[in-house]
Records
---
Amino acid sequence: MDMQIATILAVDGIATGAIYVLIALGTVLIFSVTRVMFVPFGDIAAFAALTLAMLQMGQLPGTVLLVVVLAALALVMEIFDLWRRSSLRLLPRAIAYYGILPCLPAAVAWLLQGVRLSFGWEMLLALALVLPIAPLLDRIAFRPLADASALVLLIVAVAVHFAISGLALLFFGPEGFRTEPISRAVFDVGGVVISAQMLLMVGAAAAFSGLLYLYFEKTIGGKALRATAINRVGARIVGIRPQRTGTIAYLLGSVLGGVSGLLIGPVATLYYDSGFLIGLKAFVGAVVGGLASYPLTAVGAIAIGILESYGSFWSSSLKETIVFSALIPILIWRSLVSTHHEEEEEEIA
Amino acid sequence: MNRTALTRLVPFAGLFVVALLPMVAAPFTITLMNYIGIGALVALGLVLMTGFGGLTSFGQAAFVGIGAYATAWVTTVHGLSPLLGLGLALLLSGAVAMLLGVITLRLGGHFLPLSTIAWGIAIYFLFPNIPGLGAHDGIRGIPPITLGPLSFAANWAMYYLIWGLLVLAMWGVANLLDSREGRAIRSLRGGATMIASLGVDLFRMRLVIFLIAALLAGLAGWLYAHMSRFISPSPFDIRPSIEYLVMAMAGGAASVYGAVLGAAIVVFLKNWIQDILPYLSRNAGQLEIVAFAVLLILLLQYARGGAMSLMNRLVPRAPQLPTVADTGLDRRMLPPAGETLLKVEGATRRFGGLIAVNAVSFEMMTGEILGLIGPNGAGKSTLFNLVTGALTMNSGRVSFLGRDITNAPQANIARTGIARTFQHVKLRASMTLVDNVMLGAYARTSSGFVQSMLRLDRGEESRAACEAMAQLELVGLADKATDLAGNLPLGNQRVLEIARALAADPILIVLDEPAAGLRKSEKVALASQLRAIRARGVSVLLVEHDMDFVMGLVDRVVVLEFGSKLMEGTPAEVRASKAVQEAYLGGVV
């Protein structure tokens, strides 16, 4: 490998790493606020890309049906809950939150079926379509388990991934998609080719990380999220509703996931189940930050991107093994630096 | 015949049915039963790991794969005996488990389960890339298992081999759970601090159950390879790993029988889904996993105890008193009264900017009852945790009988002869009183995992039971020995903790607010019990808020305020001290 190839691989790795940064930040965000290690998070990214691809081909995206099915399920559960607590007077609000609101983007997509919009509007619509998925999954799968241990929540999260990726196969089909590039511009910097797409990926990662930082530091909503992450009971006592902050975390996380999906769409062919591996790699990056530190998470995610880029150069068939094996030295390092506080884990049964 | 006797017959009836099944069942049923047996072996490991030990693995199929590929490689590439294949299968799955366990088991929380996903995938992608393992086409022509003249080529012969091994494994795991190590395993989930204070090495405990689960999976892989005679990478992916977890959860992760029940549910359900799904969708294979995922979510939402908890409701089992020997365990020689027992010098602990304990020094003599008092937030419990090793100190020194125990691991400190109780009672609610107290004798007994599995620990167990009964007698709970600890009122729970601490045959017993929440009469009884304990030569260090209780009981008092030592002396001296009065009541006007 000469210097030029090494540089090209590094640039490529940083661009891929930027995608993992967004997903890893979202993962840490959702985990710290809700205690749920949201494994299906990579799927959200993949769905955003698939949705955009189908919009660009003038087809009705599979997301429309997925969201409608999930919303129906969530609504039924909510109504059943209200009926059991005999507070059916809250029914109109439940219908608005779980029935109408999540389905609005789906309705727009359905009405505009076959109509080609401008590029930016299509991206926005794709993003809006995937936004309700995570909060709806929260309502369906996790809220009935609010009292469960983090371990049970994790098992459920893994199960949720397999359930929705199976549904995704029904709605998206087994074919792979690639979206149109956002820009085809290419720059030559000292013999290394850098595409505008790569710059966009890195730029978006930086911009959204900055926005997240500002949100947490400067707004009351962000502080409520941080409060919930630090101490749920305490947050509740000062009037923060964990359920609501949870929904906000899922929405914010979905924005990050969706954007990363839109960015990765033009550079990789994605299938209905591609999100799982993307999400797991981002998780490996998040482990560097101990699932708690945002800056370290970003560093870790970039490192994973670079490692993957070099790994696939050495042996494309062993790429995944190389990336996931990286977890081992990372975990050794973590076990050395973190004075692990033995958190009392609750009973499962 | 009464109900308990009937309950005991259930396993034998099950064994009988399993033994006779091949005579009556159709060949296809036998095939399904073989899959159930193999799945149950893997699920049994998960029951031990997840159900009892609180460790979750999403990567068990990778161990099955290691076992299967190991034997396939030995028997096809090298043409050697399947028995050598078994050796390699167990060796490799064990070695990989040790390596991964050492790395991941020190980290708590989410790191272990999520890293199991990662290494599960890493190993799965590795199989087709290792030369000699047939790439994605897999390995064909794996020979059947032969043992001298015996051949396990026939389906029914394989059935007996699989179920024979499964029954053996279940017997071993059930024995293990009903033993010294088993009580500790059953306390891992949610009782980590408590069992560490009893001298249990948590890391070793987790590592061993992780290893046992991996070996069971490796064994299952060996059986699988020789049953199907052909292997390819796909059955060792992350999806089958999820299926194994569903088996353990569906059956009931807190029961050895749950593994079999769960495997049966999953295999029959899968068979049924495969029959009907093609009518529903072209992509039937993919939808199978959706069905299982939804099933797993529903199980966790509505039936976390699994099918076994329903069975237990139908056939309830009364807890049995263990066999009690006539003599207890050997006791240690207690040091004579009046020697320096515990010496704390300049103990300091900071939490961020807060100095919870600031350069506190005191000494304690053998045969003494020493009280530690101070207003709320004075740092009493923190100081306790520093002495017992539950927290590490930033600076300072602790020595016990002249031995330096500063920042030693909690389990080691426990083994030097310090036993403790907790401010918030830490008992195993679902274990009987006698089991809870026997847990206290952990460091005095020595039966290991292998001895326990083979039932070679009974002599020691019955002596530990004798010890436990004696301690229950002492605190007046002997008549409730087989009750569940969770059903006791708080007052009794506190003295049960003291009984557990005494079962460790301690030199020093450290009590964190033993009288909190007790009624007046209970406090009087507790005080006389503590005096009796001291009369036996055991020294007592206690933190307490109740002044009447402390002043009437202790020999000397150490007073803390804002993390620093205010004074020490006899109860009378402390009562007379102006500084102590100011600390408690504010300045005297």
---
Amino acid sequence: MNRSIRAFAVPLAGLLVIAACGDDDAATGDDGSSNEDVTITLVTHDSFNVSESVFEAFTADTGVNVEVRPAGDAGAVVNQAILTKDDPQGDVLFGIDNTFLSRALDEDLFLAHESPALDRVDDEVELDDEHRVTPIDTGDVCLNYDKAGLAAAGLEPPSTLDELLDPTYAGTLVIENPATSSPGLAFLLATVAEYGEDGWQGYWESLAANDIEVAAGWEEAYYGSFSGSGGSTGDRPVVVSYASSPPAEVIFAEEPLADAPTGVVADSCYRQIEFAGILSGTEHETEAQQLIDFMLSDTFQSDIPLNMFVYPVTDVDLPDEFVQYGVEADDPYLVDADTVARNRDEWIEEWTDIVLR
Amino acid sequence: MDRGVDRHRAPLTRRRVVTAGIFAIPTAFLAVFFLVPATTLVLTGLRDGGSWDLGEVGRVLGSSSTRRVAWFTLWQAAVSTVLTVVVALPAAWIIGRVQMRGRALFAAVLVVPFVLPTVVVGTAFLAVLDRGGPLAGLRQSAAAVILAHVFFNYAVIARTVGAAWAAVDPSTEEAARTLGASRWTAFLTVVLPQLRSALAGAASIVFLFTFTSFGVVKILGGPRIATIEVEIHRVTTELLDLRVAAVLSLLQLAAVIAALALYRRAGVRHGSGRLRSGQSTLHRPVGVERIVVAMTVLSAGALLGAPIASLVWRSFDNASGPGLAYYRALDSVGRGSIAFVPPTEAIRNSLGFGFAAATTALVVGGLAAIGLHRLGGRARGLADSSLMLPLGTSAVTVGLGFLIALDDPPLDLRTSPILIPAAQAIIAVPFVVRTMLPAIDSVPSRLRDAASTLGASPWRVWTNVDLRLLRRPALVAYGFAFAISLGEFGATVFIARADAPTVPVAIFRALGQPGALNIGQAMALSTILLTMTTVVMLVVDRVGDARVGGF
């Protein structure tokens, strides 16, 4: 019988390990609470990232600690915030973008705060007159192309959305499903902005006839079907990705690259703007305001590109790779947030009928 | 049969009290971590806007797109289940019966697909279904989904049925053969009936898994195919239409309950296998058996091995030849940022959650199985099915339910680190029950009687007889629970996590940005995850296989 007990020793050993880990956590918690400082919670998406030194600088300046709590992708963060409106999971929410903005504003999730730092921000990205949300960064969703792949096929990179309809580009494009993917939706909105609310359907009828592939999400499209990334396995040389993807290819190359393997079609970009807001229900409104102001400071803004691969909203210097290989579209597509909110579901439905059935 | 003996040993009422006591923990656990959250979300959805709107129920159920999705969900799950059983049964025989070099490794590696993140395996599959290749026609098709389902669930059949097979007394089969039955007849008439309970249990789990399939369908099925689970996820996360999501959740639940009722009707209740402890049931393959072994190992190698091997290879495939650049990058790229996860920490977190989830699942599921064994008639069937329901319920429903149901003291668990292993254990409990119950049912009552006659107390009988015989099934269940936890990502995505990133979380973070080093790190982490899984399985199996002296 003793030996049969051994079978249960593995689970028991596990319990001990857990118990030991639990003690560690408890100890850290004690250290935190012995400190009189306030801790505020930043609810955000899984892509949020920042240098440790940046939040340390904020804590040194204000005495306020920041706890980051990621909660799924951008859409999930907004949904969770709406569902937990009466008992929010944090003090500040970061990562709501212009496609979900109306939904959040309709639900009264945020307290207004007009940050003094807003005077350094372009008016075009301030979408809420009441300042319930503050723009923090912009990320452009653009067509990317595989330089070598297109050259091998004897093709020039497309320069406009229209050119994709040319039969020479048949079988080259992979996009994401707008029903399940945020860049996929951004690309659909780009075509709405270009061809109008009554014209985009015709464009998609022609595009769908030109042998495009529809992937579920960005990972599947970029790594699974696109041919241009250092680690991809696909064979389609044009993909819907981000303006910052070529700089990322260079920064995350396995061996230093002389040039980016991919390029951006500058006239195909749709602008996504990411906002932060103070969750109503917070007990730390002042500290939350301090955090929002800090997110517009040079310290935070200049840390954005290399951690989140999006662009700052103030005019801080960009990293070399962004200057050299990235594109900042002069006149990106943008559809007004209310129009998006009103038509989103219907457009996705229509798109699905045109492209998938 | 056995239970009749137990029943007149103690007064009926006392027996009921003890049974209720045994069920207390599983009931409380399921109530807190499954029933309350799921019910809360469904009710919130149905009452969305402050009033009940049952017209919506009719509209959603009556729409042609719902019918199409429901029909696809049903038929692909049925085909996937049958195919998995057929393909994996020979592997179960190898695990249960065949003495060969590398058997332990074979049994351990089978679990690997089960833990790898769908997106990683999905891209590996996409590479296999390369446009230029022979399987190009399968891209974005139901066939690709079914193939992947077989890949993911192979181990469920092979290992659980294999464990049951090892417990079947070979002498019954030998007797049949001596009496002139062919190998095949002996299998069909003697062995298969003894495996029926384990087989039906494992198949029911595969059915529920594939019925509620999400990632595989999304990634490999392409945008034209959806299961009910995919639709629930879409209307919840994209549209935040909780009312439609609630109706679809109820539809899914109804289908799962119907399937479980069918399973009960099939009369699968009592294990009839004879559990043995002691002598090995393994033998060296002879004659035609050698061919079956070779074909099984080769086909498993092609189906499971090829995508895994390509993944491992990519983790070493550097620009200037094979190397460790991606592994080195794990410890350097992104250091100094808050999202940086030191690989050792991710491994420790994964193992910690694995131990916690598997131990919880074993305690909860083990108690539930003991309780079920003591129940009879309809009560047993109903209790049994209820325990399976978490597998048939949408992860997004339960995950969001956590957020709105578990936010008040004393159960403010939203940000508690307990929530992750608890959510994982909920998925693992049905495994434990399905593996343990047939085994408990088939503990020969004469052994218990003999022990009591010799004066052993009921507790002593249980530890000396039951516990000893149940060790192997318990460890198979423990291993699966551990594997579920190691690979789990779905349920916990919806929970704002305490900062304890696991290996799958690190894989997703690596996949978030373009660049060779990022996908390379994802491959390296996947290789680490599959190595961890293999080692854990080997350890668990070794403990389970350690021979105890016979009675």
---
Amino acid sequence: MTTHAQAFFDSAHLPRSLELDDWEILEDFYLTFLHQIHDFLSLIEGATSHLSIEEQRHHAHKLGSSCRTVGAPTLAGMFETLENLCRNENTDQQRAALLATIANIGEATRDQVALHLAHAGRT
Amino acid sequence: MIAEHILIVDDDVFLCKVLCYQLSVRKYHCEFVETSTAALSRLQQKPLPDLILLDYSLRPQDLNGLQLCSKIKAVCDRPVVMLTANDELRTIVSCLDAGADQYIVKPYDIEELSARVRAVLRQRESRSTKVDAAGAIGLLEWEALQLDPLQRTLSADGHEVALSEKELAVLSLLMRSPGTAVKRSDLYSIVYGRDFDSMNRAMDVLVGRARKKLKALTENYKIRSIRGSGYVLQPVRARKTTTEGTSS
């Protein structure tokens, strides 16, 4: 997939912004982030009607912030857009399209974080 | 020196962990909870945290941050710093009205956040010193009311109620000048240890709580609000006498 060829995750961002080089702590942060993304992707898999607009807004708000912090700016931007769309009830189609994109980019980002975990953990 | 203890309330575990790390580097002891229920449950246990960092936006099914802030202020006398997603005036005002001592807008800069935490903790320390100084004077009596700063109780007619640190400070100040209005700004600066902020309704909330405690104890005294002057503690009979005198 073309999305997987793009870099959606900057593995240097979190250690740099926190001035942190302790891998055990970083690993815990990345694992926690992976859980959050995984849970959200599970929630939006298939029918999106499981999530109310308020729930979508809340997840988007939290995940946008988490993505920005972890070093996934593309996904962060999408969550921020989703959060803004959720403030307007007449955006069903736009939100559905965006959620589909988020699912795609979210998976790619998750894979890249997981890959970093696997590689960095071995070094 | 004992590390000051911060409780973070946010349903975003990732950000909680990052914030805990950032604060622990700055020598704070941190823990976090994800729900209002867990937060209120934690605040039933000792030792209480020195400060609570509360996110404005909790899960939709949960209380919102403002509701939780009010509840926290009702059950414990600890400063609350609210984390908000925007700096809109109505958001800030609602945070302060709910009793928050400070707010910080996300995405936060950790240096700013820790500076605000230090400021709030300094204010609390300053206030505690003043309350302790008041407490050193010992039992305060006025008419049938007795205020015990050491036990933090107010009693009358053989009954007593427990007081929070701030309620004690308010009643102590009012009982030192019974029948005389104490300025809201004076009360605020002494109790909160900082300059009066007319937008902050925390003083009204606090006086409301002190009123309820007093009313639960006795119907013979009340704290009246005097428009433009402040608050006064007086016997209910004195007010009736004045009113009767005026109307006759």
